[in-house]
Amino acid sequence: MPLPRGPDVRAVLRYPAVNPGPHKEERPVPHEQQPQSPDVLDAEAVRTWSSLSLAALGRAREDIDAINVYPVADADTGTNLYLTAESADLALAETFAKVTEGTARTSLDQAVRAWAHGALVGARGNSGTILAQLLRGVADVLGAQPEEPVSGGLLARALTRAAEEAYEAVAHPVEGTMLTVAGAAARAGEAVGAAAGTAVEVARAAYDGARAALAETPGQLAALGRAGVVDAGGCGLVVVFGALWQALSGQEPAAEPVRGRAVPVPQTPEPCAQEDDGPAYEVIYLLEASEAAVGELRERLDGLGDSLVVVGGDGLWNVHVHVDDPGAAVEAGVVAGRPYRIRITHFGDERRRARGERAQRAVVAVVPGEGLAGLCGEAGATTVLVRPGEAPAVAELLDAVRRAHAREVVLLQGGAELRAAAAAAAEQARSEGVRVAVIPTRSAVQGLAALAVHDPEGTFDEDVVAMTAAAGATRYGELAVAERQSFTSAGICQADDVLGLIDGDVAVIGSDLTETAEAVLDRMLGSGGELVTLVLGPDVPDAVAERLEAYVQHGHLAVDTVTYHGGRYSAPLLIGVE
């Protein structure tokens, strides 16, 4: 789509710099930060651009977080941009490392596409998702051209394509945001590129155009004007354009590349910041789907909430939306294709963080199913979704603890195989001042039982004891299908046999799912129970649950039954008996 018209952005506007504060976690940049050949945009220059962007965002992220009031005053724009840039930089570094192992030289095409892909898979929040699409737009132009090093005209076209694709990715573009800054930078670069300017001259023009546009954002968006700040996402984008100019010129700007108005965000957010009337949850996931399916997904998600951004292409997408029903947003992704790396964040916690507050206590739950992730998210937990055969890394668990943004965190580990990773994440979080307790749940049904008795108003120790007791008092069963002939604790099974597991051991081998489930229930209820929890897998019809509920009621009148849908990646059937 054509870019919206804007004011003359070729004029250079200087305004006060945001003072960079201390940054405890800034990662050292391994790559040399000064280009070997200034004014040449090749693969090495892209690597330098990435490293400089990451370093500058690391220095500025706390200040950018502090001026974040739109679309939600959750004080995380700087952090989201930094984490997105970090993912992109790591992917780029891996590409260089792989090529270095051989004898070939990393090409510009390889560099820009790796950089864009890293941003896509690691994009965080609204701002990070838009940044990922901007990098994809750059890659679409530079990666398709045999011209290396890049001319000023080609760089200008890349910046224009980036801004166009970013506008197209946002369901309802709003001026006064980082989109405006991207568009202004592109127009300024195009003006210089059309006059046969060099790549470094185009980069400088884009940087100056971005700075000028950023200064105008308070007058374009009421939320910013009332708060007295420039747009946080646009501020981060100025960092990226400043890094581009520095990578090509070899000159560091006279002042910090990050510019903005050093006006603090009001402690009580304005109504425009959607403190009360905006959607309650942020949902983000990667999605493998066709372009046609994504078009239908956009329409469906647009009806569920706002701040919809869908970026990517070639079968892989990053979906971001704010909704009140996170389960429906995830289910829409299931209809469209294969969603994974699902992140559900409750804005109540984020808004407390924006006001400088920490929630007293939060729960982080590791769950094996999209439906279970939505269920736990609706209950207020921060979730980590695992797929069959995969396990979350320590960094992913630690990130979830940080996202919970609480003084105290109860971590439901979700499986015995995750004990070491959960312990390591908890230890690191403790070193950051968070009190963490790991409850060694071995099944999702134990996690549900623990979450059901969670009492954030009680003391931490009492809450942990109660949740641990509830999990420990829940016997867990699971039905799975054998992939091949094998010896089990219940005898020899054949391929496609239904296996009924109780507390992790095979107890029943059958040929029918429902009949095997009944046999498992008999054994589990033989020692008593008051509540049966059934979690249906994605391919199991509701009729199975109805039959099992009737079976329990017939044989155990005093036992109640509750049924949930585990969603994609869930086992065929999970059973809990409390």
Q: How would you characterize the overall build of this protein?
A:
This protein has 578 residues and is an alpha/beta fold. 48% of the residues lie in helices and 17% in strands. The chain contains 19 helices and 16 strands. The strands form 4 sheets. Strands 13-12-9-16-14-15 form a 6-stranded mixed β-sheet, sandwiched between helices. Helix 1 packs parallel to helix 3 (108-122). The longest helix is centred in the N-terminal third of the chain and has 25 residues, at 77-101. It is elongated, with a radius of gyration of 26 Å. The model is unreliable at 1-38 and 256-276 (pLDDT under 50).
Q: Please give the alpha-carbon distance between the first and last residues.
A: 57 Å
Going across the major beta sheet, what is the strand order?
Answer: 13-12-9-16-14-15
The major beta sheet can be summarized as: 6 strands, mixed
Structure classification: alpha/beta
Residue runs with pLDDT of under 50 for 5 or more positions: 1-38, 256-276
Given the structure, what is the number of helices? 19
Helix content: 40-55%
The Rg value, from CA coordinates, equals 26 Å
Estimate the global geometry from the Cα principal axes.
elongated
